[in-house]
Amino acid sequence: MAVSENNVRVPITIPKELKQQLDNLAKEDKRTFSNLCAKILSDYVQQKKDGE
């Protein structure tokens, strides 16, 4: 699958159990695994900017 010009593919290593949990959450939210991870990271960055 091609990555758009505005995005970058980032390989990460996570525990299998965490991957399964994230897959389940993504499915519940009707998102892809990748989209959920991007949202989680974006939310984290925003919280840091807001001083939380």
Class derived from helix and strand content: mainly alpha
Radius of gyration: 13 Å
- The portion of residues assigned to helices is 55-70%
What is the averaged pLDDT score? 95
**Main beta-sheet strand count, sense and barrel state:** none
Strand content bin? under 5%
Query: Regions with pLDDT < 50 over 5+ consecutive residues?
Result: none
Order of helices and strands: HH
The total of beta strands comes to: 0
Helical element count?
2
Distance between the ends: 36 Å
Q: Given the C-alpha coordinates, what overall shape results? A: globular
GO biological process, one term: regulation of DNA-templated transcription
GO molecular function: DNA binding
InterPro entries: Arc_rbn_hlx_hlx, RHH_5, Ribbon_hlx_hlx
Keywords: DNA-binding
Task: Write the SSE topology.
Blueprint: H1 16-28, H2 33-49
Describe the structure.
With 52 residues, this protein is mostly helical. 58% of the residues lie in helices and 0% in strands. The chain contains 2 helices and no strands. The chain has helices at 16-28, 33-49. Helix 1 (16-28) crosses helix 2 (33-49). The chain is globular, with a radius of gyration of 13 Å. It starts with 15 loop residues before the first helix and ends with a helix. InterPro entries: Arc_rbn_hlx_hlx, RHH_5, Ribbon_hlx_hlx. One of its GO terms (molecular function) is DNA binding. Residues 8-49 form the CopG-like ribbon-helix-helix domain. This is DNA-binding protein. One of its GO terms (biological process) is regulation of DNA-templated transcription.
